[in-house]
Design goal:
Blueprint: H1 9-33, E1 40-44, H2 50-59, E2 63-68, H3 71-78, E3 85-89, E4 100-106, H4 115-123, E5 126-142, H5 145-160, H6 168-177, E6 181-187, H7 191-211, H8 217-230, E7 239-248
Helix pairs in contact: 1-2, 1-7, 5-7, 7-8
Length: 251
């Protein structure tokens, strides 16, 4: 299994775009659900550090750690120094995160096999009174045919790697059984912003889709051109996210 969205310049750029789109909803979630001023907050799958810095800012932890398997992303994250924030390289499929008061992950479980088991393992690393905070897709409604073609292809690509683009629906079922809670947030960014984000995504995983036989070169190239043509648009929609935000107590 690999990370479908890759690493490098294009992957780092698309994570920056992703953060621009989802930062307001993530900020509201963290401000409303995380314990304040914890001793240690941990950001799992931190990429180049956008979510880690947001976590540190919103919960005001004494110490915040971002963890990612990519040495490239961690190297980028370390370039912007923030007091009380550090970054570590670790494979979360084989290594446990440190014991912490807050453990946060946005758009990580979608890429991992057996997400329910992963969440249970992370909960076991919480201190008394701690919280595991998860954000994942519940649904993506894309009525435009170009965006719908992209969504269909990317969901298949993630499934081929053992993940689930809409894992938020499974987590929503998990939370009530384990004493947790579920929130839902919705956003509908401008279509040009969505097209730019999807286009950068396609650059990173398009060659893998071709190599694995999920799409041919002409299909990927045509989709890339169609997304690029949409980038200048400022009208709203037609793509609407439902974000599932899950809060879980210690196991």
């Amino acid at each position: 299994m690999g990370y479908a969205f890759g690493e490098g310049d294009d992957a780092a750029e698309r994570l920056g775009l992703l953060h621009q789109v989802f930062e307001p909803t993530s900020r509201r979630f963290l401000e409303g659900a995380a314990p304040r001023e914890p001793d240690l907050a941990v950001d799992l799958g931190c990429g180049p550090g956008h979510t880690t810095r947001l976590l540190a800012e919103t919960v005001a932890a004494h110490h915040t750690v971002g963890i990612d398997a990519s040495e490239d992303f961690i190297g980028r994250a370390r370039q912007q120094r923030v007091p009380g924030v550090e970054f570590r390289v670790a494979d979360l499929l084989v290594e446990d995160p440190p014991v912490a008061d807050v453990v946060y992950a946005r758009y990580l479980l979608a890429h991992l096999p057996e997400p329910e088991e992963q969440a249970a393992r992370w909960r076991s690393r919480l201190r008394a009174g701690g919280r595991l905070l998860l954000e994942e897709n519940g649904t993506i409604e894309a009525t435009d045919p170009v965006l719908a073609r992209y969504e269909e292809l990317v969901s298949t690509m993630i499934a081929e790697d053992g993940g689930d683009l809409y894992v938020g629906r499974r987590l929503a079922d998990l939370a009530p059984r384990d004493g947790g809670s579920v929130r839902r947030d919705h956003l509908q960014p401008p279509i040009g912003q969505v097209a730019r984000l999807f286009g950068r995504n396609l650059r990173t995983w398009g060659p893998r889709a071709v190599g694995s036989g999920l799409a041919d070169v002409d299909t990927v190239d045509r989709l890339a051109r169609d997304l690029q043509d949409m980038e200048g648009r400022e009208d709203i929609g037609p793509a609407r996210w439902e974000l599932v935000q899950v809060v879980l107590p210690p196991a």
